[in-house]
Amino acid sequence: MSEGCADTVSSLHKFFVSRDDCYCVQLKHGYVKVDAPLTDNVLQQHIRGKLTVGSYQLTVDNHVKWLCFDLDPEKLVDPKQTARKILNVCFEEKEEADGKKRPRVWPSAVLLEASRFPDPSFHIWILFQPLVHAEVAHYLGIRLLDLAGLNPKQVELFPKQSMLSTDRPFGNFVKLPLGKHQAANKWSTFLDCETFRPLPNKALRIAGGVSLAESDQTKIMTFKHEGHVQARFDVPSSFKPLKNREEENIAHFLAKYWAAGKRNRLELAFLGWSIKQGVARESAGRIIQHVTELTHDEEAAARLQLVDYHYRNRVRLASGLLGISGLREIIREAHG
After folding, report:
1. Which of 3.30.420.10, 3.90.1150.10, 3.90.920.20, 3.30.365.10 is the CATH number of 3-212?
2. Contact 58/171 with Cβ under 8 angstroms?
3. 215 confidence band (pLDDT: 50, 70, 90)
């Protein structure tokens, strides 16, 4: 593999591949799922046009590396103008608390792709580093469309769902950039966000992701927004509180792994486990409260809001919550 090809493969994997235990391959008509690892060799074949790969967006713990707007000429009168509206919102400068003006989305995190150049069919990718919960990405996508004055029914937004479930264990996929559209026999290419002219593939090398504060993500997780409002459900009477000693032990265990960049994922996994185990909301709340005290977490209020949100809105999704597998993953990461 040449150095340039290796760099492109590495960048594709870094920015776009969230789940590498399976993938999809495009046929002349539709796609077929492949239950095999998405390896560098597969990505190499993709960028050489030997096959065209679609990557599943959500990780097993419902996080994503990107959100994507799919602008289809079959649905839009003027896809290029629609793309400009979204890009203008992304790059619009806002005055922040320190008095400085900065773009709403940092330019290096936004990629404009012609999915079958030169057709007016576009993908706008917004990259995240580190990963964010799918619900956060979906909310941000809806918000950007709203600011751009666009109808979400005409612009396909990925992620489409906030979490995987037993009925949807893989979720949606999107065709990776820099490949060949098998039906149209046309190549994907990145474009300059102002001129819409093709960029060299090395543009990926200077890409970077948006970093969202954990406090902002937690707030978004508690929002109710159009098109993504969960119904309220009463917690079953079978849910029981834990004993004081059990709550104490769990809190001390969680505190050992309550590190910056991991706290949000750890809390989500713990709450999934609590709901699956039938732990009362009061116990879960006391445990999280104690963890924030043990770790001097400055975002204690937001942590408790997330407890309330889960027990109000996600009890019925118990089978789709991550739970113990998410906890094990974070522990494995911590121990290297």
Report:
1. 3.90.920.20
2. yes
3. confident
